[in-house]
Specification:
Elements (H helix, E strand, L loop, with lengths): L2 H5 L3 E3 L5 E5 L21 E5 L20 H14 L6 E6 L1 H12 L4 E7 L17 H13 L1 H13 L6 H11 L3 H12 L14 E8 L5 H10 L4 E9 L3 H4 L1 H13 L5
Parallel strand pairs: 2-3, 2-4, 4-5, 5-6, 6-7
Antiparallel strand pairs: 1-3
Helix pairs in contact: 2-3, 4-5, 4-7, 5-6
């Protein structure tokens, strides 16, 4: 196993002619795909990895400057694909943060991706006069301050809101666990990176087909954001809004989300 693979806890499972890469979002790790994995390994070669900064990675490897922008995460993704020797187009499934990471990687190396499936993705979280991302700067300032003051208490409050459930439910406890496993200063750095991104000027450069999937009620991503991306992406795209809630539906509602993901994996957009 190479250095990059070790640092990101890369696992390659299953077999098949096509490769699927699964990338998690903020506050989770590759375990968030546990409900989807059994449906893939019989037909596909599946690559899982942890984003740097996840609680399962070595915090000593976290470079605060590198990960102050999404480019740092995109470089990691491309390095993983290179180290694994993946040169044929793969299907990339990115949740939240990683959906935009996949988009950046596809701008740099479009030939490496046959499609990008974006789950709960947003190119911009801050509102401006002509765009509704869901947050005002004051909201984010309060969020960052709460993380700084008492990270554990913030995790306990944020997890139920993000999942859309009570603290005593299994999926909220699971998200709380992976969220709390992050080192607080690293979590704050990544949160700042995510909430301050503006990928809108880059969407037109993404020519790889994109499948945009989101919950109808997502704390972090208003439904209008998916339609915005659909209109501005540079290649073919489609949108599916699922009639459920939560920012991590693959964890909280797998019985509904897994069939949707499988359908988008198997179906290609018409040329």
């Amino acid at each position: 196993m190479g250095i990059v693979e070790q640092a990101h806890n890369v696992r390659v499972l299953g077999s098949g002619d096509e490769t699927i890469v699964l990338a998690h979002g903020f506050g989770t790790d590759q375990s968030v795909w546990k409900h989807l994995m059994p449906h893939l390994v019989g037909s596909y070669r599946v690559v899982l990895y942890d984003n740097m900064g996840a609680g399962t990675t070595n915090p000593d490897y976290f470079d605060f400057e590198r990960y102050s922008s999404l480019e740092g995460f995109a470089y990691d993704l491309l390095a993983i694909l290179e180290e694994l020797g993946i040169v044929q187009p793969c299907i990339f499934i990115g949740h939240s943060l990683s959906a935009m990471v996949g988009a950046l990687a596809a701008i740099s190396c479009p030939g490496l991706f046959s499609k990008i499936i974006m789950l709960a993705a947003s190119p911009r979280y801050l509102n401006d006069p002509e765009y509704y991302g869901g947050f005002e700067q004051e909201d984010l300032d309060q969020l960052f301050e709460a993380m700084r003051e008492n990270y554990k208490a913030w995790c306990s409050g944020f997890a139920p809101l993000a999942i859309g459930g009570d603290m005593d439910t299994v999926h909220v406890q699971e998200f709380s666990r992976t969220l709390f496993n992050m080192r607080p200063d690293i979590a704050l750095c990544i949160a700042r990176t995510i909430f301050h991104i503006d990928m809108r000027p880059h969407l037109g450069l993404v020519t790889v087909p994109c499948h945009i999937i989101q919950s109808a009620a997502d704390l972090a991503v208003p439904v209008g954001v998916s339609e915005y991306m659909h209109r501005h992406l540079g290649g073919k795209s489609t949108v599916e809004v699922m009639l459920l809630g939560g920012h991590l539906p693959q964890l909280s509602s797998p019985e509904m989300v897994v069939p949707v993901l499988l359908r988008h994996i198997r179906c290609n957009l018409a040329a």
